[in-house]
Backbone:
């Protein structure tokens, strides 16, 4: 009876291992979601979420990050980059959005910005912190 019990435990551990679930490792990384809007208020006033600089986005190392990046109708195209983390959105045109997903796998303070000509120097940047 004891041998049968031990075989059952061993079989259970094998099944758990085959599914990729190890004891103590069943926690998934948190998903941190942010909404960022690229906006040109004036010919020399470009912003993220209507502020200069854009909002500070803070996550923990290992978090999955989802940024919903949109540009309102009647604006101009924008993009969002974080060079050090190899995060590069497509160019988003007025009335459209892009979903940017990545894992924050490096601690530090980084800058997100719009790479289109002159947009960053006119205010389109913000801090991205990985704790």
Residues:
């Amino acid at each position: 009876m004891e041998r049968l019990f031990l075989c059952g435990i061993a079989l259970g551990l094998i099944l758990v291992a085959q599914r990729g679930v190890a004891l103590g490792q069943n926690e998934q990384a948190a998903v941190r979601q942010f909404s960022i809007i690229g906006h040109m208020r004036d010919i020399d006033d470009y912003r993220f979420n209507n502020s200069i600089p854009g909002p500070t986005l803070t996550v923990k190392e290992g978090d999955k990050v989802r940024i919903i990046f949109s540009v309102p109708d009647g604006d101009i195209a924008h993009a969002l980059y974080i060079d050090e983390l190899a995060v590069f959105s497509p160019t988003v045109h007025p009335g459209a959005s892009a979903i940017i997903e990545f894992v924050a796998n490096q601690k530090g303070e980084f800058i997100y910005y719009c790479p289109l000509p002159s947009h960053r120097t006119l205010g389109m940047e913000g801090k991205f912190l990985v704790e």
User: Anything to note?
Assistant: Residues 1-26 have pLDDT under 50 and may be disordered.
